[in-house]
User: Fold this.
Amino acid sequence: MRLKLLTLALALSAFPLAGHSEDLLDAYREARANDPVLSQAEATRLATGEGVAQARAVMLPQLNGSFGLTQQETGNSVASGAIQGNGHSRTRQVSATLNQSIVDLSQWANLSAARSQASSQDSTYEAALQTLYVRVTTAYFGVLTSQDALVFAKANEDAYKEAYDQADQRFKVGLSAVTDVYQAKSYYELAKAQTIAAQNTLNDAKEALTQITGRPVTDLKKLREDLPLAPPNPADPDAWVQASLKSNATIQAYQYNVEAAEHSIDAARAGHLPTLNATVSRGKETTWFEQASAAGLRGNGQYGTTVGLSVNIPIFSGGATQSRVRQSIYQRDEAQDSLESTRRQVVRNTLNYYRSVLSGISQVEANKASVESGQKALEATRAGFDVGTQTMLNVLNAIQTLTQAESSYSQSRHALVLDQLQLKQSAGSIDLKDMELVNTMLQ
Assistant:
């Protein structure tokens, strides 16, 4: 009985490799600890959060100390060719000053803006964390898809090699024309090139996963055959859109950006308003004289305390305050436009992923049926070729059709899992439990 190389290779690819294989959660844990993109988002969040402390600090008491030492020449006289009476005076100043802002509305507005910016970065970090779920899964299944593609390419090459050898043998005994040999050899050589390309694609897919996890890719668990084909729940695209508009982390980040811009406008407008500050200062000034011809004469200073209030009333600043107000308004408008653009993109993505999940289920079912039909067609075509009712070209085309069907089936299964995750990410509801669920589908 003829050995079906293609079918055998595809069957073997369904079994997990011996030994320990890395699963999706292993890859996620490595990425969570080593991914530089997420680390960058966290560093940005922490740095932006420090802006709140800095904005609050200018509203708290400010204590400064100072120390000064000055020297002044007292004058010289000349007698009998000698310098007499030359000398100098020195003054030492020591003081401490406490300043407290009492009324400055711009400081309160800046503090509110800093808080909104910190909240925006918190949401941006949350979006980066949710994106990591999808990035890891995408890279993981990218490796699986590339591995399957390499298996199909090798099986395709082996099947074409068998067909070529058979055509060559039949030609040598006079059972077929040389055209069959040329056709089979052409398909075989093309299959070898496709195998090389598939290997390169797999190597790059592994590097993409390594880029996220920081570790070389080992054996990965594969997606099991009995893949759940559940439609989105709820089965209402409008419900998913409303959930996205409410919970999507990226939208929330842009909403906080708009809030921060509004507070910045208030801070700029406060530049027209008076400010009130309180000051308490305590210090001492000591002066002493030193002369070349006499002992130093020293005067001891006494400590003094000064308490005061100061009101600063802006009158004219060359138009700078009005310019800052206009600039802040433009920046607010930009933030609002960015928010609206993001909202529309999220709505589009949500609907697209919702439809993709539905169509993906149908594609998986159709591609599975296509594989089954392709296998039967190849068997029938080979049997017909043996009895002379089918040509070698028909056999080659049947092999190619089956390989394409297997590749489409593999891609559609992986794409369905990714579309389900991306739908939840767009709705802002994705979390680690979703990755754990996907992990249960591996073997």
